[in-house]
Give the backbone structure.
Amino acid sequence: MAKKKEIKHIPVATKKSVAFLEKYINQASPTGFEWEGQKVWLDYLKPYVDEHYVDNYGTAVGVINPEAKYKVVIEAHADEISWFVNYITPEGLIYVIRNGGSDHQIAPSKRVNIHTDNGFVKAVFGWPAIHTRGAGEKEEAPTLKNICLDCGCISKDEVEKLGIHVGCVITYEDEFMILNNRYYVGRALDNRAGGFMIAEVARLLKENKVKLPFGLYIVNSVQEEIGLRGAEMIAQRIKPNVAIITDVTHDTSTPMISKITQGDMACGKGPVISYAPAVHVNLNKLLIDAAEKNKIPFQRQASSRSTGTDTDAFAYSNEGVVSALISLPLRYMHTTVEMVHKEDVDNVISLIYHSLLSIKKDQDFRYIK
């Protein structure tokens, strides 16, 4: 049997763009409070687009060829999971509720920033010492009822004098790093990695002087983590003909994940192309053709009923928008050490780029004409 020829990886991201990624990941952008992250993203994108705007809730959009009637969207979401201050005890401890899918089990001993009108207030998720918790089956696990923040105060009044009140949002302070020169690691790679990738597509189009036969809308949506809300709003405003969405999906090669139920995907093996009712078959074929013609490795994933991504919001808007999903494999989702492979990031960028070059002017993707 002939040995399968290995596909050579061609780097796409530059030192300058990776520096942007680091700055972007480190900038907090919690659901409903995304504006600081969106400023960083827009500042990077502006040189590569003809115009830009931000909607009422913070979704940011860069446009190439805004005069064109046929509209194609490439989209990611900007928000990250976080917490809300929910209750302050008389002794000055703070109990929280989720803002998005925050994982209570990773909270104990984490350092956080409480966002106030006066800036960040530092705090920690405290947790009783192992000596005091008992052992075996009686040992209490972290839950929303027992994790709490300690900001060094001894009374509710002292907490409030710091500017902390019910409704203040809370983010982890963990920052970006590169692990073994192979992985990008940090909080909120779900899905600011997507925002990075679509911005890089815009950069490549500009630097390669590509003239697209349609209007391209580079969209960084808000509020995906609480129900695809930003995508719902911006889809109605843009009214696109085609939408290519990028998000993250699970690397199922790590422990405690069942490939039988979650599928077989791994970091380093390329972008993941999804099959789901919201994913348009003919647009999916275009993505696969682009991958194969340009020797971009890819994986496949099936989603039951919905993809759980902004793909669903775009696909079912405006009487039906031709939509597809390209996912980036990610380890340890909704933790502060989310990991993505550098080559996968480059390959997602390349796949979106070459897919756009494959879309013809006013292309009709319908099955029956």
Summary: Residues 331 and 339 are 5 Å apart (CA to CA).
